[in-house]
Amino acid sequence: MTAEDRTLVMYGDGVRDAARRMLPKLPDACFVPAGAEALRAAVEGGLAQVVLVAGIDEQTALLGDSAVLASITLSMGGGPALTAEVAGAPTARHAYGMWEAAGRLGPCGRELCRRTAGELERLAAEAAGSAASPVAAQVVLVDAAGERMVGMYGRMAR
């Protein structure tokens, strides 16, 4: 089994082409829309690595709570004022804009990717019925247009 056979690239709304450009050597069959069902099926098929290329909306939804954005802001040195603004943001995209305006997009984006990767690995472990994840997760945060990578975190497959 090749590395390509054991890699799944999930992509968020409108970023399929960006994901393909980031990983041009992988065959089209490796690319699927983001979703827990695709991840579960891939784990059952022997997946070794998952790469998620998505915007802030999909990553926040995967983490299940927009309050995570305020937590990230505070832990990445955003300070109490920015944290309060982000906590009151009507959408995740508004929080993204606040991070960017405050010069905190880099560290906050990487931390969002780190937490999202952890959640993907937790879901993979759950799908495998194991305490440890059978996959290594990599996450790429893209801008609202889905064209520019603004954050990344991940481990390589074993």
Described by strand count, sense and barrel closure, the largest sheet is: 5 strands, mixed
Oligomeric form of this entry? single chain
Q: Indicate the proportion of strand residues.
A: 15-25%
Number of helices: 7
Mean pLDDT: 92
Segments where pLDDT lies below 50 for 5+ residues? Answer: none
Q: Structural class given helices, strands, pairing? A: alpha/beta
Instruction: List the secondary-structure elements in sequence, H or E.
Output: EHEHEHHHHHEE
Query: Given the C-alpha coordinates, what overall shape results?
Result: globular
Strand order of the largest sheet: 2-1-3-4-5
Number of strands: 5
Explained architecture:
With 158 residues, this protein is α/β, with parallel strands linked by helices. It is built from seven helices and five strands, in the order E-H-E-H-E-H-H-H-H-H-E-E. Helix 2 crosses helix 7 (105-128), helix 3 packs across helix 7 (105-128) and helix 6 runs antiparallel to helix 7. A five-stranded mixed sheet has the order 2-1-3-4-5, with helices on both faces. The chain is globular. The chain has helices spanning 16-22, 36-44, 56-63, 67-75, 79-87, 92-101, 105-128, and strands at 7-11, 31-33, 49-54, 136-142, 149-154. The longest helix is centred in the last third of the chain and has 24 residues, at 105-128. The chain has one domain. A hairpin with a 6-residue loop joins strand 4 (136-142) and strand 5 (149-154).
